[in-house]
Design brief:
Mth169, Chain: A, elongated
């Protein structure tokens, strides 16, 4: 069984609505915020290998049209 | 200017609806998935220091009632 960590982020140049909303709200609270980007942090536990995990990202966990993803193997157990 | 990475996850024992949905969909696609947890991956660029970033998480970026967060300093620039 392996544990993977997957980081899904909007692609460079793609508008990030939750990030923009958070940035505006933090500025309204008085924080000197330059940029906020909000993506997904996915923890996956599976018997599948790295190639299958990449496939899961492409098919379901990320939207390759507007999102990039990065996979890290957290541990083998 | 510092860059922070913030990982927001549901607390242990709190039901994670997007994770449960993704798990079901991946199993339907035939992948041997044991567990999927979906949190937020926030990239923050700010003049503020670590204490202010922790405050931003507590006030706005995470919901401390149901979520945990972890802050990492990505770089000073």
């Amino acid at each position: 069984m392996a544990r993977y960590e997957i980081f899904v982020t909007y692609r460079e140049g793609i508008f990030d609505p939750p990030g923009a909303t958070a940035k505006g709200a933090l500025k309204n609270l008085g924080y000197p915020v330059e940029e906020v980007r909000i993506g997904k942090y996915i923890q996956l536990q599976t018997e599948a290998g790295p190639d299958a995990v990449r496939e899961m990202c492409e098919k379901l966990l990320a939207n390759p049209v507007i999102e990039d993803f990065r996979i890290e193997t957290a541990e083998e157990a």
